[in-house]
Write a structure and sequence with these properties.
CATH architecture: 4-Layer Sandwich
CATH topology: Purple Acid Phosphatase, chain A, domain 2
Shape: globular
Oligomer: single chain
Strand content: 25-35%
Number of helices: 5
Helix content: 10-25%
CATH class: Alpha Beta
Distance between the termini: 9 Å
Strand order of the largest sheet: 5-6-9-10-12-11
Largest sheet: 6 strands, mixed
Length: 199
C-alpha cells in the first residue's frame, strides 16, 4: 500500500510568522514534516518547529539570516542525501556565483556536488530540495537567479517525484509556479506551499 505524505514547504520570506498561532496549528496539524528551500531566517525555522512540533529538513539559500541563532535540531541536507520516513531526499543549497560569498556556486561546482551523490542517486531519489531552480525552469535570465544545468540532468536521468526550490520571488506568496517534466513535479515554494506526495 502506498503512503501519502503531506509536506509544508517554505522559502524566501517568513510569511507564516504573521499568522495567528492557533490558526496556524490548526491549518497544518496533519502535516508529516516541513521543508525549507532556503533564504528564511534561523529564527523562522525555530518558530516553525516550535509551533508545529514537526521535523524540518532544509537547505541554505544564498542568504543566511540570523546565523547566530542555533538550529541544531533541524536537518541540514546541503549537498547530501537523507533517508527520512521512507523517502530518499537530496539537498542542493545556494545559487549561481555572483558575489563570491558562501552558498554560491559555478555550474562546475554544483555538478561536483551532484556527482558526490551519484551512487545514492542511482539507488533512487524521491525529493530534491534546492534553493535555485533548474536551468530554463522558473529561473530568470540574469546571473543571480539563473538556474543550474546539472539540475535538468538530474531530472532526466533520475526522475525524482518532486523537486522544490525557492530563490525566484513571485508577486505574492499565494502565486503558483509549477512545472512538470515527465513525471517530476517542480514547484517554486516561495512563501509557503502545502504539497502532497505518494509513494
Amino acid at each position: 500500500m502506498k503512503k501519502k505524505y503531506k509536506i509544508l514547504c517554505v522559502s524566501d520570506i517568513d510569511i507564516l510568522s504573521n499568522m495567528n498561532l492557533e490558526s496556524m496549528k490548526n491549518k497544518f496539524r496533519d502535516i508529516d514534516f516541513i521543508i525549507s528551500a532556503g533564504d528564511v531566517s534561523n529564527r523562522y525555522i525555530d518558530f516553525l518547529v516550535s509551533t508545529l512540533d514537526k521535523d524540518i529538513i532544509y537547505v541554505n539559500g544564498n542568504h543566511v539570516y540570523h546565523k547566530d541563532h542555533p538550529i541544531t535540531f533541524a536537518k541540514n541536507i546541503d549537498g547530501k542525501f537523507l533517508k527520512y520516513k521512507g523517502l530518499r531526499i537530496l539537498g542542493l543549497d545556494g545559487s549561481k556565483l555572483y558575489s563570491h560569498k558562501e552558498h554560491q556556486y559555478t555550474d562546475f561546482q554544483m555538478t561536483c556536488k551532484v556527482m558526490k551523490n551519484i551512487i545514492s542517486l542511482w539507488r533512487g531519489v524521491d525529493i530534491v530540495v534546492s534553493h535555485a531552480s533548474p536551468k530554463g525552469i522558473h529561473d530568470i535570465d540574469e546571473r543571480v537567479h539563473e538556474g543550474f544545468k546539472i539540475f535538468n540532468k538530474v531530472i532526466k536521468w533520475f526522475k525524482p517525484k518532486l523537486w522544490v526550490h525557492g530563490h525566484v520571488h513571485l508577486h505574492n506568496y499565494l502565486a503558483v509556479q509549477e512545472t512538470y517534466v515527465d513525471d517530476t513535479r517542480i514547484m517554486n515554494v516561495f512563501g509557503y506551499k502545502l504539497l502532497e506526495l505518494e509513494k
